[in-house]
Specification:
Blueprint (H helix, E strand, L loop, with lengths): L3 E2 L2 E6 L8 H11 L3 E6 L1 E6 L2 E7 L2 H12 L6 E4 L5 H11 L7 E3 L14 H11 L5 E2 L3 H8 L6 H12 L6 E3 L8 E7 L5 E7 L9 H14 L4 H18 L24 E2 L2
Parallel strand pairs: 2-3, 2-6, 6-7, 7-8
Antiparallel strand pairs: 1-12, 4-5, 9-10, 10-11
Length: about 280
Amino acid sequence: MKKYSYPSVMTIAGFDGSGGAGIQADIKTASALGCYSTSVLTALPVQNTQGVSAIYPIPTVAIKEQIETVLDDIFPQAIKIGMVHTTELVNTIAATLKKYPGTPIVFDPVMVASSGDKLIEEETVAAIIKQLFPISLLITPNMDEAAILAKTKVKTLKDMYTAGEKILKLGCRHLLLKGGHMDGPTITSLYFDDKGRVNTFEFEKFTTRNTHGSGCTLSCAIASYLALGKDLHEAVQLGQTYVHQAISGGIDVRTGKGNGPLNHFFNPKKLVKHEVV
């Protein structure tokens, strides 16, 4: 009798009780793309579509034990890391994952709230560059996060090229710099690979409030496509297309009183089964 396995994606991220971002968005994304999702909780925010009212921390020892327990049982084909907001958390995640080399890691360096407020301290940014950049296959900052990493303003497409080159020199291997915050009718993102090439991706920009969790969704979508066997360039392209379609599929839906979620299940896939040799 043949045996099968599911392509698995682990998400290491925070909680979102409103269901639009964080671990909830990641589980929806991986599931919608046909992958099996496991998760590690890093923080417990109290939030809804209108904002975050409190954040309760998870002990770092619990985070370490979560990662080890899942990886020792259901080893993923890809890992997505979301918001890591303290130096101690960065060090714990990096030290634990270094014991399991070889699995592609997509890191979404959440550093700035939608209000524009910076969420992490400078020492945590330094720890992220030192500890998480070297073990990540891809990082996916938006323009505000790129400005923090590159220590320069990022307002235009020209600024994005300049910031991207500076971020690459910090030690990351591949970089997807998201241009969703740029004014204009299109979204332009830049993908810098480890050979010095830059690819441009352009998508129509929708007028909608329903974009909560789009960054979480994108990074997990890329990780999911990697788990499905796509190469990185194709995973980056397919991940962005998925997010664009998920936003389009949820434009006319009202969920909550604030910024609503994407429609992750606009075209859900069956759970993929790979034959075990």
